[in-house]
From TrEMBL:
Organism of derivation: Electrophorus electricus (Electric eel)
Location of the RRM domain: 17-87
Family annotation (SUPFAM superfamilies): RNA-binding domain, RBD
Name assigned to this protein: RRM domain-containing protein
InterPro entries reported in the protein's UniProt record: Euk_RNA-bind_prot (IPR050502), Nucleotide-bd_a/b_plait_sf (IPR012677), RBD_domain_sf (IPR035979), RRM_dom (IPR000504)
Keyword RNA-binding (UniProt): yes
Record PROSITE patterns: RRM
Gene Ontology molecular function, alphabetical: mRNA binding
Pfam families: RRM_1
Keywords: RNA-binding
Amino acid sequence: MVSWVKVSSPAGSAASRLIFVGNLPPQAETDEIQVLFSQYGTVTECAIIKNFAFVHMEDRKSATKAIRSLHLHKLHGTTINVEASRD
């Protein structure tokens, strides 16, 4: 089951704001991912699907900053993969 958390209305091109988060540990939660990415800008939506997630940022600059800062970040001892989502 996918649980989307919509935080606010998005602005700008969706493709440039959508982030793929791979290799999530089993204990990762949507709220936790939202808080982690919120350090870099406003998260408009967030969903975990099995061991990966999609995070929508309010703007491209925030998304780029989050990707650069969180790629290979350790979450619950597991290194996560953070990259721009492909179309």
